[in-house]
Design a protein that fits this description.
Layout: H1 2-29, H2 31-55, H3 63-84, H4 98-117, H5 128-147, E1 155-156, E2 160-161, H6 163-185, H7 192-211, H8 221-247, H9 255-316, E3 320-326, E4 331-334, H10 336-346, H11 356-359, H12 363-377, E5 382-388, E6 393-404, E7 407-417, H13 419-486
Antiparallel strand pairs: 1-2, 3-4, 3-7, 5-6, 6-7
Helix pairs in contact: 1-2, 2-3, 2-8, 3-4, 3-5, 4-5, 4-6, 6-7, 7-8
Amino acid sequence: MPGSKIPERFYYTGVISAVVLGLYLSSLYSYLLFHSLIEIVTIAVAFTLFILTWNTRKYLASNYLRMLGVGYGFIALIDLLHAIAYKGMGVFPGYGANLPTQLWIAARYLQAVTLFAAPLFMERRMSNHSLFGGYAAAVAGLAAMIYSGNFPDCFIEGKGLTTFKIGSEYVVSAALLAALYLFSRERKHFSDRVYFLVASSIACTILSELSFTAYVSVYGLANMVGHFAKLAAFYLVYRAILVTGFKEPFELVFRDLKQAEETLQKARDNLDWQVGERTSELKAANEELEKEITERRQAEQQLQAHHALLTAILNSSQDIIIFSLDRDYCYTAFNEKHQEEMKKVWDADIKVGMNLLDCMKIPELRNLARQSIDRALRGEVFAEVQHQPGLNIYYEFIWNPVNQDGVIVGAAVFIRDITERKRAEKELRRFNEELEQRVKDRTSELEAKNAELEKINKLFVGRELRMLELKERIKELEKQQTSGGQA
């Protein structure tokens, strides 16, 4: 590859030397021809830059190149006016050498501003329409100032360049030096070849400006050197953007894409390493997860067996109704007995997840159920009896909160039909009441008989006492009779 580049360099060197020599010889024949050729070439290069840039603006990631291409297109418009207004062309009679010099200074100011501002917009958002409109307004304003006579004089016949013209060239040169500094700060965005070509173009532009501070005649040597430097500057920009852009599109026009690709490749390499590390971690985590899944399956199998056993136990109960609810009053479990009773009482086909309160159509019972459930959810353990008036059935409810890791997650209810017990209790109360009444009645009878006996007893006792008194009296009489007989 190096062997193929050496002849190519000699080729370009020979072509450039031939062009420079031909232009110099044309200046000896006619300086106007020399000037026109150089201006035509630079204008063509600038317009080509504009066309390439504008048509690739959607794909051109570099704001620097975009601003440079659009700016050089509008600079070429002023340079075109400068070329056809040059002394001897006769396009604008009556203006003399001052008009082309003013147009030249206007173009150089616009070029300096473009090169200075482009690095500042390297990483900033820039609207294509705003950029185009701004340059169009600037060119229109400069042309209006020049052709209306409001632009300062730059060349006076017989005296040469004005102070404004010379000072402007130095100001432009200083601006170009600042532009070169700003461009060097953004070197990372360009390849070494493009950076060298653009930097060399700016340097040639500075040389051109300094040359134009020294000429007295528009056909003089200093003027010629300035135009050669300008041609070199535009040629270097042409090499940097057009030739290099066509030969190495991914290195210039799509340089940001290439940088992004390199960054992506580094990220991909890093990602591959991270993926390897993560794969190892995932493999270990998978093994742990498989172990955990196996343990969970075994636990689920045990739970299913326990659940089947519990279901069999629950369903085997013929007199106990069992169900449980979550905090939203929805069923989490119930036995067949409860389902049968719900059909009997509320005519509802219940399912797990169904809301108990939705099954209860009687507002009083629904409110009572809600109050009882809320008490259980607050952690209370209590029993209560409910009566179904329509069916004359009595149920005993035993409410228990369901705890899970110290948190109440629902309520479990045990219900027993105690209708027979209630009937027995009622019958027992009735029997007791009858018995008490019979005891009262018998007591009254006994009390009456006892009073009568006491009365009879009193009669018998009085009679006995009188009999004793009578016997005593008889004894006394007998004693008296015995004593009298003896006397």
